[in-house]
UniProtKB/TrEMBL annotation:
One Pfam family in the UniProt entry: DUF2189
Residues passing through the membrane, by range: 41-59, 65-87, 113-139, 164-188, 209-242
Protein name: DUF2189 domain-containing protein
Highest taxon listed in the record's lineage: Bacteria
The keyword Heme is annotated on this UniProt entry: no
Coiled coil region boundaries: none
Key words, A-Z: Membrane, Transmembrane, Transmembrane helix
Length: 262
């Protein structure tokens, strides 16, 4: 049976295996990049924190919707960090890595990144709708705020709504994480097709199941901390994780056989 061209393309270069605790090193390297060029990261973080605050205010009495929206943020966050991948890339090349570098990555000249962003947006929207339907349809009482979500869903004495909610979220989040964990930095950095980048991302996860599980847990934990601090923590967490994700990509993928993008 003939293999797809995208799968063949993804095998033109290799992936690397890393030690279990290597994700901690990515956090250290990401923090270093953030400290070297803080302004682009702070602007990204402020914009996302402001968006989260506006969303929370607009739906403050509809936590059944916010629960899905905030968890869906984890699905689309890789594409939102594109400008900061470009900053880390420029730093690695010895460039000046300014705000202009980050903005240039957002120019609609690369339909591959646009296509990937649209797919992630569909995934995020699908989870928000699924989460809202599940909570409004099966919760024994209205869920209007975080306290009611905790009481009615998380600590409910009967039923397994929270467990089902978590399981469905995991079923959606796991393949999205596996498809995007290195795909977007790879698309930014090298000339490669979208499907080939996704296949590469899956290879990385399958070659490093334990380190990548730790990486996913760190991303989730730090993002939740950022959200729990009235969104203010996202100002730091967003750029920190974005720069760290670039170093994860560079550590996990051997791109020496691929042409660089300018």
């Amino acid at each position: 049976m003939r293999e797809s061209p995208a799968l063949v393309e993804s095998r033109r270069f290799g992936t690397r295996t890393v030690p279990v605790l290597r994700p901690l090193g990515w956090l250290v390297a990401g923090w270093r990049d953030f400290m070297r060029r803080p302004l682009p990261g702070l602007l990204h973080g402020l914009l996302l924190a402001a968006f989260g605050a506006v969303l929370f205010w607009a739906a403050r009495n509809q936590f059944w919707l916010l629960a899905g929206a905030f968890s869906g943020f984890l699905l689309v966050s890789p594409i939102l960090a594109t400008g900061l991948y470009a900053v880390s890339r420029d730093l690695q090349r010895g460039g000046k890595a300014s705000v202009r570098t980050a903005l240039a990555a957002w120019r609609p000249r690369d339909d591959r990144l646009i296509m990937f962003g649209v797919l992630l947006a569909f995934a995020g929207t699908g989870w928000v709708m699924t989460s809202a339907a599940l909570i409004t349809g099966f919760a024994p009482a209205p869920v209007r705020n975080p306290v009611e979500f905790l009481r009615v869903v998380v600590l409910a004495e009967q039923g397994h709504l929270f467990e089902i909610w978590l399981a469905l979220g995991g079923v959606l989040a796991a393949p999205v994480f596996a498809s995007s964990v290195v795909a977007i930095p790879l698309l930014l950095d090298r000339e490669i097709g979208v499907l080939a980048a996704v296949f590469t991302s899956w290879r990385v996860v399958m070659d490093n199941p334990v380190p990548m599980a730790l990486w996913a847990a760190l991303i989730m934990a730090l993002t939740l901390v950022g959200m729990a601090s009235v969104m203010l923590g996202l100002v730091i967490v967003v750029p920190w994780l974005a720069h760290a994700s670039w170093h994860a990509y560079r550590d996990l993928v051997d791109t020496s056989g691929l042409p660089e993008r300018p």
